[in-house]
Amino acid sequence: MLRIHFTASDLARTRVAPTIGAAAETMYSLRMLRNCATSALPFRPWQAAVRGRLGAQARPLTSLLAVDGPDIDLMALMGDAPSLEAGIDTLLGASSSRLRTELEHIAFHPSQLSWARQLAEGGLDARRHFAAGIAACNEVLVAPYWSTARSHVEGVRAGFARSLLDGGVERLLEGMCVPLVRWRAPVLEVRYHRHVEVHLGGRGLVIAPTVFLWRDPALMWDSQDETSSPTLALPTIGDARAGAALWDAARGPDQSLGALLGRTRAAALKVATEGCSTTELARRLNVSIAAASEHAAVLRNAHLITTSRRGKSVVHTVTPLGAELLEGGGFSGGG
């Protein structure tokens, strides 16, 4: 069991994050695929859809999966940015000491020790090779489902926010992720793979709803920054019905639209139905702001969205032609 001890200062500094980050979700998805747990019923449709699709480009990450014990903590190396591109920038700029700290205690397969050592030494080529492997895994395992998954997580987060508004932080802690988590003031008891006592000591706690995490929550912290708040990642898909709804929605008419426009631009068109800024579009698509601006320009030139200025921001909205395209969704063209 994990026991997290709170003080009054910790309660005041506890918050709910939008995501654990695209990089960490990618790592959890890879673990899920590797374990292929027969009991993970909500993820079986997803596993069936992605199994066998990881190619040679993904090997820089798949080859470094631990033989036993914890895997590489991509949140520590790449941060919690919803954009994988931002996470890769963080990885490329990380200090050599951080890389060594995150890699030195992991039980790699003997055949991969030399490659892991190159990465731990911080060489830029090794980092780029590793980043390419992470991107390849993300492209197959997470990206096709990310828009729907983010909407799911935002719904969970909204429920947490209502609890917080209705009864404060303790109401939030009492009601989240039951029965895996139990609040016995001033201690949060969490089902965990080993016994751990954590004293927050005024740092507070970050609570992060997570998609590719099954059954047991996970605790992550920055081993090089003792002042940073630990993050408690919580599973949000608890039964087959919830999983089916998520994967079915991800396989909806957007697939055929994605064949016509490309998956990311099809997702951008869908987001624009709600009206969004370029920053919001980038966040929802898990891309950089520059990439989101480029996708918006392509859709605007095709007369599928319009862009107007509101104060210092621009707002993208779907046109009647774009709405008609979304409603039809019956395209089967390639490209």
Task: Give a written overview of the molecule.
The termini are far apart. Helices cover about 50% and strands about 15% of the residues. The chain is globular, with a radius of gyration of 21 Å. It is built from 16 helices and ten strands. The protein is of the alpha/beta class. The strands form three sheets. The chain has a four-stranded mixed sheet with strand order 3-4-1-5. A four-stranded mixed sheet has the order 2-6-8-7. Helix 7 (about 95-105) runs antiparallel to helix 8, helix 10 (about 145-175) runs antiparallel to helix 11 and helix 13 (about 265-270) packs across helix 15.
Give me the secondary-structure topology:
Elements: E1 2-5, H1 8-13, E2 15-16, H2 22-35, H3 44-50, H4 59-62, H5 74-78, H6 84-92, H7 96-103, H8 113-120, H9 124-141, H10 143-175, E3 181-184, E4 187-190, E5 196-199, E6 206-210, E7 218-220, E8 231-235, H11 240-250, H12 254-261, H13 263-272, H14 278-285, H15 289-301, E9 305-310, E10 313-318, H16 320-328
Parallel strand pairs: 1-5, 2-6, 6-8
Antiparallel strand pairs: 1-4, 3-4, 7-8, 9-10
Helix pairs in contact: 2-9, 6-9, 7-8, 10-11, 12-13, 13-15, 14-15
Ends distance = 50 Å
Number of strands: 10
- How many individual helices? 16
Quick one: overall form? globular
Report the sheet with the most strands, covering strand number, pairing sense and barrel closure: 4 strands, mixed
| Mean pLDDT over all positions | 85
Task: From the alpha carbons, calculate the radius of gyration and give it in angstroms.
Answer: 21 Å
Helix content: 40-55%
Range of strand content? 5-15%
Catalogue the unreliable spans.
Answer: 329-335
- Major sheet: arrangement of strands: 3-4-1-5
Element order, helices and strands?
A: EHEHHHHHHHHHEEEEEEHHHHHEEH
The computed structural class is alpha/beta
